[in-house]
Design brief:
The chain is an alpha+beta fold. It folds into 2 domains: about 60 residues, Urease metallochaperone UreE, N-terminal domain (HSP40/DNAj peptide-binding domain, Sandwich), CATH 2.60.260.20; about 90 residues, HSP40/DNAj peptide-binding domain (Sandwich). It is built from 3 helices and 11 strands; from the N terminus they run βαββββββαββββα. The strands form 4 sheets. The chain has a 4-stranded mixed sheet. It has a 3-stranded mixed sheet with strand order 1-5-4. The radius of gyration is 24 Å and the shape is rod-shaped.
Length: about 170
């Protein structure tokens, strides 16, 4: 018998125990191993259809489907995410809270951080049941400006541009 089990992104990354109800009404607890990939098939020995002429039951094959996460993406054992930061955090640096599947952590943003710069959070990625290793979370920062630029900020940047000829495209 073939079945499909849909799991959340975090359940696939960290591992989970799921209760599955088979078509015959039998319920069974299934260990979803940490680090399971979308499309992986788990074999449940003897949990399939009864055998012919009193033979042993066959195996149940459960295909795992991983629901995407709205903030995290997966790259092997690493998790990718994007972190919006303000212009002052980019220029002056600071500590910013970052969500991981293991809970929030503080990330130190160095002075002069540019959009697209990526930081590594060691051990905050996908756990691998087979090896016991855990991947990393790769956090790309994105500088986000306020919806409305006030006169004070516009004036400051106008003055700054006149004194500092800086062209990032050169």
């Amino acid at each position: 018998m073939r079945y499909t089990l849909q799991v959340d992104f975090t359940e696939a990354a960290k591992g989970a125990r799921k209760r599955v109800t088979l078509p015959g009404g039998n319920a069974l607890d299934l260990n979803v191993p940490a680090g399971v990939d979308d499309g992986r098939v788990l074999r449940l020995k003897g949990k399939g259809q009864p055998g012919v002429n009193g033979g042993p039951s066959g195996d149940a094959l459960v295909e795992i489907t991983v629901r995407p996460h709205r903030h995290f993406g997966r790259d092997g054992k690493n998790i990718r995410s994007e972190l919006p930061i303000s212009i002052d955090e980019a220029v002056l640096g600071g500590k910013v809270a970052v969500d991981t599947i293991w809970g929030a952590v503080n990330l130190t943003i160095p002075k002069g951080t540019s959009s697209g710069q990526t930081f590594r959070l060691r051990g905050k990625g996908v756990k691998d049941d087979a090896t016991g290793a855990t991947g990393d979370q790769l956090v790309s920062v994105k500088i986000v400006l306020p919806d409305e630029i006030d006169d004070e900020l516009a004036y400051f940047l106008t003055e700054w541009r006149q004194k500092h000829a800086y062209d990032p495209r050169r």
